[in-house]
Amino acid sequence: MQPRVIFSNELLMRFRAHGHLRDQLVPKISRAADLNLLSDTRSQVLLRVRAFFPFDFFPDEVIIDTNRVNVIKRNFFLSERVHGIPVANILDVFVEHGPIFAALKIVDSGFIENEIEVNYLRKEDAEKARELIQGLIDVKKQGIDLAKVDHRNIEKQLEELGSIEVPATL
C-alpha cells in the first residue's frame, strides 16, 4: 500500500519551475510517506487487557500494538499514569501465576525502576499478552517490518511465535 500525497496546483507549478527545489522536496515527500506508513501500523491495537475490577478498584490496563506496549496505571478517580514502552526497549516479559489471577511483568531497559507490573489479570489474558509481546520482541530482533505483513493474521502469528512449549513431565 503506497501512501498518497496530495499537492495543490500552486505547489506543483512551483515544483516544475524550480528544479533545484525538487531535489530538496523529494526526500521530504518520502519521509512524509514513511511517517504515514508508520502511523498506519502504530494505530493497530493487537490486544487490550484490564485488571479484574472487584480486586482492583481502579483497574490498570495494558494495550499492545505493533510498535509499543502502553501500560495505564490508575490510582484514583480520573487519574492515571500512561507508560509507553517501545518494543525495542523491552528486555523481558513474564507472567507470575497466583491461585486465581496472574501478574504481567515487563522489564524495560529505558525505565529507572526497570520493571512494570500489572496485577489481577485473568490468567488467559496475561498469557496471551506475554505471547504477543514476546512475539513482537522476536520480530524486532529479526528486523522484520510489520508494515509489510498481512494484518489480518498478525495477532495469531505473533502469539505462535511468542508461545512456549512446555515438555510433558514423566
Describe this structure in words.
This protein has helices spanning 9-17, 19-42, 123-142, 154-162, and strands at residues 45-50, 61-65, 68-76, 79-86, 90-97, 102-108, 115-121. With 170 residues, it is of the alpha+beta class. The chain folds into 2 domains: 9-41, no CATH class; 44-162, PH-domain like (Roll). The chain is globular and about 45 Å long. The model has no long low-confidence stretch (mean pLDDT 76).
Question: How does the SSE layout of this entry go?
Answer:
Layout: H1 9-17, H2 19-42, E1 45-50, E2 61-65, E3 68-76, E4 79-86, E5 90-97, E6 102-108, E7 115-121, H3 123-142, H4 154-162
Antiparallel strand pairs: 1-2, 2-3, 3-4, 5-6, 6-7
In total, the number of domains comes to 2
Classified in CATH, the superfamily of the largest domain is Pleckstrin-homology domain (PH domain)/Phosphotyrosine-binding domain (PTB)
Sheet with the most strands: spatial strand order: 1-2-3-4
Helix segment tally: 4
Provide the helix percentage. 25-40%
Can you count the beta strands?
7
Structural class: alpha+beta
Q: What portion of residues belong to β-strands?
A: 25-35%
Q: Give the integer mean of the pLDDT values.
A: 76
CATH architecture of the largest domain: Roll
Distance between the termini: 51 Å
- CATH level 3 topology of the largest domain: PH-domain like
Looking at the structure, what is the overall shape?
A: globular
CATH top level label of the largest domain:
Mainly Beta
Q: List unreliable stretches of 5+ residues.
A: none
What is the CA-based Rg, rounded?
21 Å
Topology order in helix (H) and strand (E) letters: HHEEEEEEEHH
Q: The biggest beta sheet, please?
A: 4 strands, antiparallel
